[in-house]
Write a structure and sequence with these properties.
Elements lengths: L5 H17 L19 H12 L4 E8 L14 E3 L4 E5 L2 H6 L7 H11 L15 E9 L8 H19 L3 E3 L11 E8 L2 E9 L2 H9 E3 L11 H12 L7 H18 L3 H16 L2 H7 L1 H13 L3 H24 L6 H27 L1
Antiparallel strand pairs: 1-4, 1-6, 2-3, 3-4, 5-8, 6-7
Length: about 375
């Protein structure tokens, strides 16, 4: 819940929250926490931290405001699609604005709002944008006001898995339009107090992910899906990805794989993007015991070919293409290849396509089970 250094992570983040909520930053100001009235003596601070540790985990709802281009994922008459007990796609209604407000009467929260207003949406935004789609996920642990805790990492993994699954199902596509600067898509964290959700943090998604979000579009499959069929096509895609959000161990592996695929798409550094797409395949198809005998390249080739190939000839073609793809991956990792050439880009597109097909087939198998 709290990472590799749980006490340090929680103590430092909680102290930072108290400091930010009760004091004003001043240039060149320094000193001891025990000199501030909001902290008390060292013994009092230590006792408070230990007592709070015993109350963990705390419940949080992490909310991501999706781009308007994805509003068609849900039909007009539907305001919510539940993916799992912890995650859902939901449209902003007046009731949701009341349940998840962007403002608070708590003076500490107001202090944070004024600090973040210039970075995000400005001080005049009082509520979530009506009718926009949100990806919401509930996590347990601790989310501070600055760092990226394990709970926040888990929420981000679920968001990327959601996008990756929809790309794998061809429900969404990545457009090729140029994005000059990363848009400010919001991450909003709510903490439960006395049975109500209260905003505790506003932030923006990382720049690379923001660029990808702005490129996502509803996939018409080269015109094969007519406008009057889009609602059914979107509903089909959402139904197909639900198996990736179950509580089973296999779902966690699929989410991690989809996360790497999304990071490959969002990465503007193509060499790294190539490796990230390869990792996506390795997570699903690699196995330590088998790779010791066959090697990772041969294991992935064989499993990928038999998983998605529909004929003997197609399996041979997939295996042969993956040989070339793995050679490029090896040059990047082992010899320090400094750029991709034209043929490498062709292989990158092909590799991402194989990742999508493998993910889609694994989601289908998980649904059958």
């Amino acid at each position: 819940m709290l990472g590799e250094k749980p006490l340090y992570n929680f103590f430092s983040e909680y102290l930072s929250r108290i400091l930010a909520d009760n004091t004003d930053w001043e240039q060149d100001k320094s000193g001891f926490l025990t000199q501030l009235p909001c902290f008390g003596t060292a013994e009092e601070i230590a006792l408070k931290l230990v007592e709070l540790t015993a109350t963990l985990p705390w419940p949080f709802t992490v909310t991501y405001v999706l781009p308007e281009s994805l509003n068609r994922l849900l039909p007009n008459g539907t305001d919510q699609y539940v993916l799992s007990t912890s995650s859902r796609l939901i449209r902003v209604t007046e009731g949701l604005q009341t349940e998840f407000p962007l403002t608070s009467d708590d003076k500490r929260i107001k202090k944070r709002e004024s600090f973040l207003a210039s970075l995000l949406t400005g001080p005049d935004k009082q509520s979530l944008p009506l009718r926009r789609l949100l990806f919401q996920t509930q996590v347990a642990g601790y989310v501070g006001i600055y760092g990226k805790s394990e709970a926040l990492r888990l929420a981000e993994t679920r968001l990327k898995a959601f996008i990756g699954f929809l790309l794998a199902q061809r429900t969404l596509a990545v457009g090729f339009h140029y994005v000059p600067s990363p848009p400010k898509y919001e991450t909003i964290v709510y903490e439960k107090h006395a049975g109500s959700w209260e905003i505790t943090r506003k932030d923006k998604v990382e720049d690379d992910l923001g660029r990808l979000l702005s490129k996502l579009e509803v996939n018409h499959v080269d015109g094969k899906i007519a406008d009057d069929q889009i609602e059914g096509w979107m509903s089909y895609g959402l139904t197909r990805i639900r198996s990736g959000f179950s509580d089973k161990k296999a779902s966690s592996r699929l989410q991690l794989s989809a996360k790497w695929l999304v990071e490959s798409y969002s990465n503007s550094r193509d060499l790294l993007g190539f490796v990230q797409a390869m990792v996506c395949l390795e997570i699903i198809l690699g196995d330590q015991d088998d790779t010791r005998e066959l090697g990772i390249g041969a294991t992935i080739r064989n499993r990928c070919a038999f998983l998605i190939g529909n004929s003997h000839e197609e399996r041979e073609e997939i295996a042969e293409q993956l040989k070339g793809i793995y050679r490029v991956r090896s040059k990047i990792v082992h010899t320090g290849k400094d750029q991709l050439v034209h043929d490498d880009y062709v292989m990158l597109f092909l590799l991402r396509d194989y990742c999508a097909r493998v993910l889609a087939r694994e989601l289908e198998i998980a649904a059958e089970k």
